[in-house]
Design brief:
The chain has five helices and no strands. It is mainly α.
Length: 119
């Protein structure tokens, strides 16, 4: 029974050994000449300002979560579009209701001011 899992185990062992060998070889052979420029954090070519552990506004996280939520919901339109012709009017009405509910949620968060960055 466990014989069918042997290739997966062998693959896992090979991956771990190769990854360890590459990391070890890089640490052993790599040139180590630290300087002030090399040890400074890289921020897209801009000199970093302030502390990296600074606080973000809650609006930043709220907009991020809302983007993910609506992005995932919109992703359901693609499978529907693929089978649209075979669903007929039932599929059209169901997707219309789905979009209306999604739009109602969007209008609700817009009315509540969740997308307003100026407050």
């Amino acid at each position: 029974m466990f014989g069918s899992y042997l290739p997966i185990l062998v693959h896992f062992v090979v991956v771990v050994v190769v990854a360890g060998a590459i990391m070890g070889l890089s640490a052993w052979v790599g040139v180590k000449r630290p300087s002030r420029e090399k040890l400074s954090p890289y921020e897209c070519g801009i000199t970093p300002v302030g502390d990296a552990r600074g606080r973000f506004s809650i609006s930043f996280y709220l907009v991020g979560m809302l983007f993910i939520l609506f992005d995932v919901e919109i992703a359901f339109l693609f499978p529907w579009a693929v089978v649209y012709r075979s669903l007929g009017w039932f599929g059209f009405i169901e997707m219309f209701l789905y979009i209306v509910i999604l739009l109602a949620g969007y209008l609700y968060i817009w009315k509540k001011g969740a997308l307003d960055w100026t407050r």
